[in-house]
Write a structure and sequence with these properties.
- The chain is an alpha/beta fold.
- It has one domain (3-10, 21-220): Vaccinia Virus protein VP39 (Rossmann fold), CATH 3.40.50.150.
- 29% of the residues lie in helices and 31% in strands.
- Strands 3-4-5-2-1-6-7-9-8 form a nine-stranded mixed β-sheet, sandwiched between helices.
- The structure holds S-adenosylmethionine.
- Residues 6, 17-18, 48-50, 52, 68-71, 74, 108-110, 124-126, 129, 169 line the site of S-adenosylmethionine.
- InterPro entries: SAM-dependent_MTases_sf, Thiopur_S-MeTfrase_Se/Te_detox, Thiopurine_S-MeTrfase, TPMT.
- This is Thiopurine S-methyltransferase.
């Protein structure tokens, strides 16, 4: 997706993806499957984080949280809505908005230069925000920045693409696609798959017959 597409979405407040609460699948699987074995204060990276309340939930569980987000509007809205005052510093490709244990790096995720650094990643609506031709680059970038043994909690959506009135994002990403994307270098475990058509008004209105949400534990070999 062009960067301008997302900047326009934030400027025009077209952020239907934003949830006013933390994600139930994060609450269900983060400690039980993904990060429960990690010592307190491990760092979790949240790619394409928007102004997600999940950042706060993760911090409440005593993780250091680093989000990456293209839009400075998203970052400033996050901190002002949470009544937090960040310090802002700019280094190279990113502006860092930070308060205790929580930082949003404003810039392009694909410009992260770290290697073998992160051991915990939370992805809700990040992989699926990208069109198929960018998804492979996204997985390559995850591979670059994570260390062997890293865990990712990934939440994907796939839907009835017969109905071509639905144009992503989110881009329908089927279990087969997830398995193919992570086929090399990763172990893939499906944690849960459920029909969420009833909760997804946007899809229902457009005539979708089904929408599935799937939670995954992805482990880097
Ligand atoms: C579908 S939203 C999901 C936001 C968040 N994960 C959530 O659950 O609310 C995708 C977000 O990714 C951001 N984004 C898109 N491309 C990006 C990039 N290359 N680097 C960093 N952020 C990006 C957009 O601005 C948008 O806020």
């Amino acid at each position: 997706m062009e960067h301008q597409f997302w900047h326009n979405k934030w400027e025009q407040k077209q952020i239907g993806f934003h949830l006013p609460h933390s994600h139930p699948l994060l609450e269900k699987y983060w400690l039980s499957q993904t990060a429960g074995h990690k010592p307190g204060h491990a760092t979790v990276l949240v790619p394409l984080c928007g102004k997600s309340i999940d950042l706060l939930w993760l911090r409440q569980q005593k993780f250091n949280v680093q989000g990456v987000e293209l839009s400075a509007i998203a970052a400033s809205d996050f901190f002002s809505e949470q009544q937090l005052t960040p310090t802002i510093t700019t280094k190279k490709d990113f502006s860092h908005y930070s308060v205790d244990q929580l930082e949003i790096m404003v810039g392009d995720f694909f410009k992260l230069s770290e290697t073998n650094t992160y051991s915990l990643i939370y992805d809700r609506a990040a992989l699926i925000a990208l069109p198929q031709k960018m998804q492979k680059n996204y997985i390559d970038k995850l591979y670059q920045i994570t260390a062997p043994g890293s865990n990712i909690l990934l939440i994907t959506l796939d839907y009835d693409t017969q109905n071509d009135t639905i144009i992503g994002p989110p881009f329908s990403t089927s279990p087969q696609q997830v398995e193919q994307l992570f086929a090399n270098n990763w172990q893939v475990k499906q944690l849960e798959r459920a029909d969420v058509l009833q909760q997804e008004g946007k899809f229902r209105k457009k005539g979708a017959q089904w929408v599935y949400e799937t939670a995954w534990l992805i482990q880097r070999k």
